[in-house]
Amino acid sequence: MSAVAEPMPIAVDGTDTVPLKYLRTLLRAAGEQGYDTDTIISRLGLPPTLMEATSDANTPVAAATYNRVYTHLMSLLQDESLGISMRQPTPSGSFRMLALYVIHCGTLENAFLRADEFQTFCRQLAGLPAVNREPLRYLEDGRVLHIMPDASEFAAQNTELAWYSIAHTMAVWRRFSSWLIGTSIDLHEVHIQLPEPADPGYLARIFDCPLLFDSEHNGFVFDASYLQAPLMHDEESLKAFLRNAPFHLLANSEVESDEGIVAQMRRVVGIDLSRDFPSVVDMAERLHMSVRTLRRRLNEVGTTYQEFKDRTRCDAATRLLNRPELKINAVAVLLGFDEPSAFHRSFKKWTGLTPGEYRQSLYT
């Protein structure tokens, strides 16, 4: 008989946390599939009082604990949806494959369309009937309704797990989409096929927008301008994201905390600085926020847009000057300076050294 782990603390100071109720919902989902929750709690070394009604449902739980429980249950059930969102189990690794399938799309619109292709292909493999619908339905006033790819697979009964299924699926996709473009997608409406529950507070807190019940589809409405936002990640950053995917996608509503505003802006600028540097207005538009909001967020991290521009170009300049095969005038061109003298003046302002003095210091 294997040893039972000592009870581990469910909250750790200084870590990301989620409410205890999220952990309980995962365990209840396993219970619905016939697994004994007490055995799972004991095996994972969680406090034996975890599911007792006397425990505060809002008690903070360490995100690492939440990830551990989710990963264990996903392995136990061999179903990424934990048996609550689709009639057909979702094989482990499905979300990772979907993410890899869309990560190289140029824009969010292309990512949505490709995700729909992936879902359609998976339905065909599972022998499920095709769903004749468009994933994006353009509305008035520059808005768009994104219809969830597996909307027809939600549980048909108005139960707590059916509601969790809807919240789970739409929240995951909305948060992942926001991560892809580096900024949170603000919602105008959420459409839900089920009738309104007695207490819709759970969904209201997740989406923070009007909820339309008894709808034709499950989906959400947002500004169509987001669709043209470029994807700001690659396979390397996706790997790091997926390591903590349960927390980021299911529990963490602060999608922008994964990557600060400066990192988002650096992704917009890219590595080719020979082009005109985007103005603060252009940058704000690319990040789907007002200039005022952009400046406020920069102020919160102790910088300005001009300082960001200077730091970005200075970092690139020092990196290029470390390549001895590049002449200093060539570095100036690569950084978008029309005149080498302008580069010399700027570099000395940034570092206190001329480019030549800086390069000489590398070898003394």
Strand order of the largest sheet: 3-4-7-5-6
Fraction of residues in helices?
40-55%
Helix-strand makeup class: alpha+beta
The pLDDT mean sits at 77
The span between the termini is: 65 Å
Number of domains: 3
- Helix count equals 16
Compressed to H and E, one letter per element, the order equals EHHEHHHEEHEHEEHHHHHHHHH
Give the tally of β-strands.
7
Protein name: AraC family transcriptional regulator
InterPro entries: AraC-type_N, Homeodomain-like_sf, HTH_AraC, Tscrpt_reg_AraC-type_HTH
Domain HTH araC/xylS-type: 263-361
Keywords: DNA-binding, Transcription, Transcription regulation
Structure description:
- This protein is α+β, with helices and mostly antiparallel strands.
- It folds into three domains: 17-77, no CATH class; 94-256, no CATH class; 261-361, Orthogonal Bundle (Arc Repressor Mutant, subunit A).
- Helices cover 48% and strands 7% of the residues.
- It is built from 16 helices and seven strands.
- The strands form two sheets. Strands 3-4-7-5-6 form a five-stranded mixed β-sheet.
- Strand 3 (136-138) and strand 4 (143-147) form a beta hairpin.
- Helix 1 (20-32) packs parallel to helix 3 (63-77) and helix 14 (328-334) crosses helix 15.
- Keywords: DNA-binding, Transcription, Transcription regulation.
- This is AraC family transcriptional regulator.
- It holds the Pfam family HTH_18.
- It comes from Candidatus Litorirhabdus singularis.
- Residues 263-361 form the HTH araC/xylS-type domain.
